[in-house]
Structure formats: C-alpha cells, structure tokens
Amino acid sequence: MLKTRLTELLGCRLPIVSGGMGSGMASPCLVTAIAKTGALPIMGTANESLEAIRAKVEQVKASVEGPFGVNVLLIPGSYPDASASEVIDVVLAAGVRVVETAGRNPREHVSRLKAAGVRILHKCSRVRDALSAERAGVDAVAVLAYEGAGHISAEYVGQLVQLQHAVAQLKVPVVAAGGFASGQSILAALALGAEGVLLGTRFVLTQESPLHPASKQALLQASVNDTAVLAAGSGDDVRVWATDAARDMQARERRGELPHHELKHLFNANKAAALHEGKYQTGTFPLGQAVALMNDIPTVAELLARLEAEMAQARERLDRLFAARPV
Predict the structure, then answer these.
(1) What are the angstrom distances between the C-alpha of 284 and each of 201, 239, 287?
(2) Are the beta carbons of 125 and 143 closer than 8 angstroms?
C-alpha cells in the first residue's frame, strides 16, 4: 500500500484516480475494473440523461465493494434533461461518497455535499481556479496541465511547472493530471509534492474501455504529433486526437470560418464516430500527449500491476543513485 493524504481521504489503496472523461468513456465496465484494483475510478456523466446516470451509478454500486466517484459537470447545458444540482440529487440518493466537480466553481454545492459526508475532488486547469475551489471548501483538487486531454488551460503550462506551482500554494491535497502513462512518471509526481495522479488517456487504451477496437489499434501508432488543440486561446481550449476531422476544424478556425459555438457543436456531434463506430478519422475525441508513450492494450488489472511495479523499480533506481553518492 502507498499511503498519501489522498488515499486516506478517499479510502483507496493507490494514489491513482481515473478521469471522469467525456464521450461516455468512463463507463460502468471501465469504472468497475479500476475500482477492483484499489485505484479510485470516476464515472463520467457528461451529456447523459438523469435516468441513464441513475442506472449507471446503481450498476457500479452493485458491482464493486471499494470506493468510486461520480463526475458532476457544473457548466450549464452539460445534461439534456437536468441541472448539476439534480445530478447531485441522484448521487446522494445512491450513497456515493466521492464527487468530482468540474467546469465551474463548486461553491454553491459544497455545503450540501459535505453535509452528506461526500468528499469533493475539484478538477480544473489553472492554479488560480484550484485556489478558488479550495476557498470554497473542496477536499482536494486535480490540476490539469497542458499535455493532458480535453479542456486544458489557455495558459499553456506543462506538468513539471504546473504541479510545483500548485503544491506551493495549495493546502488541500493536489492531484496531478495530464501526461501520466507510467509508474516512473507517477513516482516523479509524488516526489514533486502531489498526493496522487489522475490518468485518462492511459485508461482509454485498456481492454475494458468502450473505445472501438479499430480506434484503439490506430492509437497504438500515435506519436507526439497526433494531438491537436481546438479553440486555442479562447479560454475553452480542448486537446483532441488529431484526426482528419479535427485538423479540418482547426484549419477552419484559423481562417475564421468556424465560430466557437459551431465548433463545440461539431466536436460533440462527431465523438460517436471514434467511440462507437471506429471511424476515427471522421470523429473528434479528447486525447492527451501521453498516448505517444503507449504501445499495448492491457487489461486494467495488468496496467495497474505494471504501474505499481514501475514505481517500485524507479524507487529502487533512486535508492541506488543516492547510495552511490560519496559521503
């Protein structure tokens, strides 16, 4: 067991959190598999109906004994038939004990969640937003660096600087998000003061993830140049798989032919092509730069065992280096 403030707070064995991830990626099957390893999975809810969310929560709850969390997006319009407050109603009724909030300051929801004994992990992409969430009363923050997938910061700050900047200012546990695909990188984050890490893209390339097999196979060939940032500089920047569709959207943006609201509509409308149909070149899909470090599609159990082994190997290497220093 690797004990940090995060594992003690959330009741998980490992200081590893899976991202809520949009596009239906954090499915009950994936969440259940992660929960059984001792990591802390977050179930995604974006664009789901209230009834679908209720059914998914109950499915996961019936399948696992360990803790799991539910993502609640606070951006208006994130759910077709419900507000964030109504999604929280479902979460509380099911007895979920961890909630990941994202998209807006969670201040208005904190007292209700805490009164129910829920731990709040707030995800954001800027340290100043993390500080605001801390003042609002959240229990921990996950800060997404520039190399991560999905909605990244327009400040373009990489993990090495972002994490140290966050740890130096925040009192609550900091979870580093973006760029993690190996045990070595997780150990590095812990060395820099993180209490845990959040993985998204690495869990996409597992056997239990709902991504279409053809899309998974294509991602095995991805390089560091195979992600693209849409809506760059808008404050709503999003890192995606650099498919033909994404490159076309990016080019149209640069020519001024694709207003932001139309881009968001196209982005959401095209997700299913990569996720369910395997037509990845015609779709858009959140993807982090860490995909370039992945060359296989393990089961979740195999992946977590590997990450633990890599952390141990990296620590042994450091121990040898320090032992070799002259007195």
Answers:
(1) 14, 10, 9
(2) yes
**Which among 46, 45, 48, 42 has a CA at the least distance from the CA of 64?**
42
Interval 210-266: pLDDT, tens: 999 999 999 999 999 999 999 887 778 999 999 999 999 999 988 988 887 787 777
Q: Is-contact 247 230, C-beta < 8 A?
A: no
pLDDT band at 25 (very low <50, low <70, confident <90, very high): confident
CA 85, CA 288: separation in Å to the nearest integer? 30
Q: Which amino acid is at 277?
A: E
> What architecture (CATH level 2) is domain 5-210+295-322?
Alpha-Beta Barrel (3.20)
CB neighbour list of residue 231: distance below 8 Å, 6 or more residues apart: 237, 238, 253, 260, 263, 264
Q: Which residue has the tokens 């695909």?
A: 181
Q: Domain coordinates of the chain in residue numbers? A: 5-210+295-322, 227-282
The continuous run of DSSP H or E covering 70 comes out as strand 69-73
Using a 10 angstrom Cβ sphere, with 0-12 exposed, 13-18 middle and 19 or more buried, the burial of residue 320 is: exposed
Answer yes or no: are the C-beta atoms of 279 and 244 closer than 8 Å: no
| Closest residue by Cα to residue 97 from 155, 56, 41, 52 | 41
The runs of H, that is alpha helices, within the chain are: 5-10, 28-35, 50-63, 84-93, 107-115, 127-136, 159-169, 183-191, 201-204, 213-219, 244-254, 260-275, 300-323
Distance CA 159, CA 288 (A): 12
Q: Is the pTM of this model over 0.90?
A: yes
Number of Cβ within 10 Å of residue 322's Cβ equals: 8
- Residue 75 near residue 104 (C-beta atoms within 8 A): yes
